[in-house]
Design a protein that fits this description.
about 230 residues, alpha/beta, TIM Barrel, six-stranded parallel β-sheet, about 15% strand, globular
């Protein structure tokens, strides 16, 4: 159950597998595509329907997260259709790095939570160890489909916590349609212990948590730069 993964009370389904290796990722356990629990769409739907009462009373629904849900397009489409048939609000939490079928996915998606990793192509590659092209391709598909969007950006001390960066972020957001909400998420250290347990090196070792007051100041500044009412 989640309260910060879209509107209302939501069931969050974490898909296994991600092509990005973000330096700040707090779910490295979701990277591997062949790990996790296998489940049929009907069995997953039964689990989701147990919470439909909470959806109705809070305006919530289901959020497909990860990992990267777009890497399992056929199963995602199947689940989105089943949720639509059962009157459940659908959200996908994504960095846009999938393998296609975007228009079909978006046809059954009520809300897109779009995670911006970095606004500069070179810095994006340093941060994620992948290129920005697929993310931009998905973003264009969202613009074509007209889906509602929430924009999210993790703010990391000394990496993207400047007003100059925020100005660039605002410039991008101002080119997008149907953006209903913008959130700057303060970088935290809650996932560091997972790297230790998995025997993986944490690339942001020594970087402190983002000061929440400064993060709020930057978020307020960002909203003054956005031309659309959010």
């Amino acid at each position: 159950m989640g309260l910060v993964d879209g509107p209302g009370v939501r069931v969050v389904v974490f898909f296994q597998g991600c092509s990005l290796r973000c330096a700040f990722c707090h779910n490295p356990d979701t990277w591997g595509a062949n790990e996790g629990e296998e489940i049929t769409s009907q069995d997953l739907l039964k689990k989701i329907l147990r919470y439909k009462t909470y959806f109705k009373s809070s305006g919530g629904g289901i959020t497909f997260s990860g990992g990267e849900p777009l890497l399992q397009p056929d199963f995602l489409i199947e689940m989105l259709k089943l949720c639509r048939e059962n009157g459940i609000h659908t959200t996908i939490d994504t960095a846009g790095c999938g393998i296609g079928k975007y228009s079909e996915i978006l046809k059954y998606t009520d809300l897109v939570l779009f995670d911006i990793k970095h606004i500069d192509a070179e810095e994006y590659k340093k941060m994620t160890r992948n290129n920005i092209n697929e993310s931009l391709k998905f973003l264009e598909a969202v613009q074509q489909s007209g889906n509602k969007m929430w924009i999210r950006q993790v703010i990391i001390p000394n990496l993207n916590d400047s007003r100059e960066y925020i100005k660039g972020l605002a410039d991008i957001i101002n080119t997008l349609n149907n953006v209903e909400k913008v959130e700057l998420l303060p970088y935290h250290l809650l996932g560091v212990s997972k790297y230790e347990a998995l025997g993986k090196k944490y690339r942001l070792e020594g970087v402190p948590e983002m000061d929440k007051e400064k993060n709020k100041e930057l978020e307020d500044y960002l909203k003054t730069l956005i031309s659309k009412k959010i």
